[in-house]
Amino acid sequence: MATADTAPVHPRALPVQPHRGPRPAGPAADTPAGTLIGSVQRAMRLLECVAGHQYGAPAKQLARETGLALPTAYHLLRTLVHEGYLRRDKGLFFLGEAAERLSSGGARQKRRSTIAGALAGWRDSAGAPVYYAVYRDGEIDVVGVCDTPENPAVEEWADFRETAHAHAVGQCLLAQLDEEARRDHLDRHPATPVTRYTVRDGPGLLRRLERAGRAGPVIEHQEYSLGTVCAAIPLTVGTTAAALAISLPVDQVDRLLPAMEQLQREAARLLGSLSLFISI
Q1: Which of 81, 156, 159, 241 could tie 135 with a disulfide, CB 3.0–4.6 Å?
Q2: Which Pfam families is this protein grouped with (predicted)?
Q3: What is the DSSP track for 37-89?
């Protein structure tokens, strides 16, 4: 179930937030002055200063607050406006679209880091690979996968989006949809056997989903990948269907239910923050 687009995620450091005022001592403070580009430093100071003024600020005020000579500030401000990092309106400077893209990109990185940390914790707690997926725009979207070399994720040997009927994550997501949405999905991605254990057709899958219910866990034995068993639990994240899942080798099937129950307990404690994951 891991692909180039759904590769295992690993915790990353959070992006450094802009800092105003004196710089703290540290590795950057020890950088030889000759290797730094002064104009870039000054431009960054102006950007940080503008970001601190919700209603904009004039060039003279920005020059004064950053300690820059007014001609230097004017030159840098014009350059930043030209590049889209600032915009000027009625003599006041505001953050531009380019700076806002940087900000939103940093927020996405922070959310991905949050996902990575949560998945890694659940992986270690359950002792199994963990998958997080949502149903978005009519398709299965695996947001994150976290495994270890000792407990690798299932290899996606058949297109994961087209085989939702065959794996626990897909069945769990489809179970949360209404009947019309389920039938629409199966019209676009018909249920066909992936292994000899896979549900044989659409009507058979729909009957199974009705029995499982929208709030129930889903257990799958070798329906997507021979030698692998999976369990998925539904998550209520706003109006979006979402699911967490684990997988284990079939010879460890006795661990599947206890690991799934552990995952449910762990996820319940962070359910409020899962809404952040949807916007990834």
Answers
A1: 241
A2: HTH_IclR (PF09339), IclR_C (PF01614)
A3: -HHHHHHHHHHHHHHT-TT-B-HHHHHHHHT--HHHHHHHHHHHHHTTSEEEE
* Cα 191–chain centre separation: 28
Give the homologous superfamily in CATH for domain 118-278.
Answer: GAF domain (3.30.450.40)
Residue spans of the domains in the chain: they are 37-95, 118-278
Does the predicted TM-score (pTM) go above 0.85?
no
Backbone phi and psi for residue 117, each to the nearest 5 degrees, phi listed first: -65, -40
Q: Tell me the CATH number for domain 37-95.
A: 1.10.10.10
Summarised one tens digit per residue, pLDDT across range 155-177 is 999 999 999 999 999 999 999 99
Question: What pLDDT digit, counting tens, does each position of 193-237 carry?
Answer: 999 999 989 999 999 999 888 888 999 999 999 999 999 999 876
Spatial separation of the C-alpha atoms in residues 203 and 257, rounded to whole Å? 27
Q: Residue 175 in contact with residue 209, Cβ under 8 Å?
A: yes
What is the C-alpha separation between 45 and 41, in angstroms, rounded?
6
Which structure tokens are listed for 49?
């200063």
d(CA 226, CA 229): 8
101: helix, strand or coil: helix
Query: What is the Cα Rg of the chain in Å?
Result: 25
